[in-house]
Automatic annotation (TrEMBL):
It is an enzyme of class 3 (hydrolase). Pfam families: Glyco_hydro_1 (PF00232). It comes from Amedibacillus hominis. The lineage of its organism: Bacteria, Bacillati, Bacillota, Erysipelotrichia, Erysipelotrichales. Keywords: Glycosidase, Hydrolase. This is 6-phospho-beta-glucosidase. Its EC number is 3.2.1.86. GO terms for molecular function: 6-phospho-beta-glucosidase activity. InterPro entries: GH, GH_1_N_CS, Glyco_hydro_1.
Amino acid sequence: MGFKEGFLWGGATAANQYEGGWNEGGKGLSAADMMSNGTHTTPRQITRTLEEGLYYPNHKASDFYHRYKEDIALMAEMGFKTFRMSIAWTRIFPKGNETEPNEEGLKFYDNVFDELHKYGIEPLVTISHYEMPFYLTENYDSWVSREVIDMFVRYCEVIFNRYKDKVTYWLTFNEINCGTMPMGNYLSLGILNEGTRDFTKQIDIPQLRFQALHHQFIASAKAVQLGHSINPEFKIGCMIAYMQNYPYTCHPQDVLKCQKLKEMGNFYCGDVQVRGEYPYFAKRYWEENDIHVKMEPGDEEILKNGTVDFYSFSYYMSNCVSHDPNLEGTAGNLMGGVKNPYLESSDWGWQIDPDGLRYTLNELYARYQIPLMVVENGLGAFDKVESDGSIHDEYRIDYLRKHIRCMEEAVNDGVDLIGYTPWGCIDLVSASTGEMGKRYGFVYVDSDDLGNGTFDRSRKDSFYWYKKVIESNGKDL
Ligand code: BG6
C-alpha cells in the first residue's frame, strides 16, 4: 500500500506570483500587475494605472523569468517528477484580443519546458491562474462578456498546438470556484467595479459574477474538447479551492448551513466540470439570489462534452460553520469561518488540519470517482536566516509531513491520488497579501516585501527533507 509507482511529486507556482519580467519579452499588463503590495492587516489596492509611490510586488516576483535554469536545477535536485506552473496569457497575447501570438512569449515557455524535460520533470500547466489580461478587464469587463470565451479558446489553441509534445497535464482555471464568492470578482473573474480599490472588497453584483462564471465554464469545456482533439493524450483537469467545512455543533441548523455552504463553495463548479451539468441545487440558489444565468443554445451540450479527465484542488485548512452569528471567527484563503477549538492556526490565522485532507480526498473520490491531484498545500510562514545562511523550517516540515501521512491514509482507503505539488516550492509573492515574507518554499529567495535583496536562492532544511520524501516515494517522512 502507499503511494503508487509514478506518483507525481513536485511543487506548484503561478506566473503572476513567481515569474516576474512583467514588461519584458513583449508581455502585456495582467490583473495581478495592477495590484499593490499589502500586509496581513492592510489590503492590497487595485489601481487602473500604475501609480508612482506604490509598490507592485508581482512585477519582479521571484524573477523566475531570468533564473528558470537555476530554479529548475534545484527542483531536479529535490527529485521533482512534476512542476506546476502557469502560462501568463499576457505573455502570449499581451492584450488578450489579438489574433497573432507573441513569439517571444511562446519561446520563453519552450525554453522552460525543454529545461524541465532535460531533468525528466513533467510540466503541469495552469492556463489561467489569476492572470487576466488587464486590457480585457478595462475594455470587455472580462468574463462578463461572452466574447472573451473565443479569445481564451484562441489562446488555448495556440499553446496546445505549440506545446503538444512538451506538456501532457493541463488545468484550465485556477480555483475556479473563487467565482462563487465575492472575493472572486477581480482575482479570478477580472471584474473591476468602481467604488473601492481594496481588492477583497469589490462591489459585488452576483448576477455579473455568476454570468462571468458561466462563461468560464463554457471556455473550460471548449478548451477540454479542443485539447483532446489536438492531442488525445492530454490530461486536462479542473482546479478547485477546496474549503473543508465542518458543522460547529450537531445542531441540525449548523449541519444544514454547512451542507449549503459546501454545495455552493465546493461542489457547484466541480459538478459542472466533472459531470458536465449544473447541480440540482443551483436553481434554488439562483432564484433566491435573483441570478439569471443567460445560456445560449448549445451551451448544455458544450458542458456535457467538455468534462475534465481529473480533479485537482488546493487544500490549506478547514473551518467551522455555525448558525450562531456571535462565535469567534477565523481567517482563510478565500473565506473565513468559525474557529475550531481543536485546531492550531498558522501565523496568518489559517487553521491547520491534516486529517481534513484525508476526509476531503475521500469525500471527493466518493463524489466523482476520477483521479485526484493535490496541486496546492503548504504553510505560509516567516523564515529566519541564520548567520551561516541556514534556515531551520521545522514547522514547515511538520505541516507537510502530517499532510502527506493523511494523504497516504486516503490512498490506503482506496482513493486514486495521482500527484502532490505543495504550493510555492520556491518562495514567491503571496496572492492575498502581496507579501514576500509569507513563505511556503523549500528554497528561500532573498527578497523582502518591497523587492529589496539579491534574489539569490538557498536551500532550507525542508529542501533536504522533501528530497528524501520523494526518493522514498513518501515513506521516509
Ligand atoms: C491559493 C492560490 O488560493 O492560495 C495561490 O491559488 C495562492 O495563488 C495560495 O498563493 C496561497 O495563498 P496566499 O494568499 O498565502 O498566497
